[in-house]
Amino acid sequence: MRRYVAPLSLGLLFAMAAVVGAQQQMTPALEVAEAVITTAVVDRQPADNVTTVAKDVGTVYCWTRVTGAEGEIQVEHVWYKDDTEVARVSLRVAGSNWRTWSSKNIDPMWTGSWRVDIVGPDGGVLQSLSFTVG
User: Fold this and answer.
1) Which residues have C-beta within 8 Å of that of residue 78, sequence separation ≥ 6?
2) C-alpha angle 93/60/97, rounded to 5°?
């Protein structure tokens, strides 16, 4: 009887590993499906997709569509002016296909290079968007 227990246990272990591996492959990964810098959000959609804005633009938005979230999570939009962090906005994601956005009021004197990093719950950058003011 003992000689059958070890092979049977090993077989069950391999079967369980295969099931867990298959479940992990079916679980969608958190990702940014779409992201744009825009000058307005209308009906939860970006009005445009810009890479350059005038210095008197007033407000700029980072609009993001996240897919693959399981349960409620938080992502962040981290705004940079010339590689210096100027704002960090925590955003709720409560579904597997979720739209969200943050905004930044732009002073006319803040011309130059800007970037928004979209950061996942683990602190990793999911995507970066660059734009120029001026």
Assistant:
1) 85, 87, 88, 89, 116, 117, 119
2) 20
Please check whether residue 53 is in contact with residue 61, taking contact to mean a CB–CB distance below 8 angstroms: no
Which residue from 100, 117, 109 is spatially nearest to 133, judged by alpha carbons?
Answer: 109
What's the CATH code, domain 28-133?
2.60.40.1930
Instruction: Tokens for 126, please give them.
Output: 């999911």
Angle at the Cα of 99 (from 97 to 101), degrees rounded to 5? 155
**What are the residue ranges in the chain where pLDDT is below 70?**
1-27
pLDDT digits (tens, 9 = 90+) for 69-96: 999 999 999 999 999 999 999 999 999 9
**123 neighbors 90 (Cβ within 8 angstroms):** no
CB 90 within 8 A of CB 76: yes
Q: Determine the Cα–Cα distance for residues 60 and 104; give it in Å rounded to an integer.
A: 5
**pTM exceeds 0.90, yes or no:** no
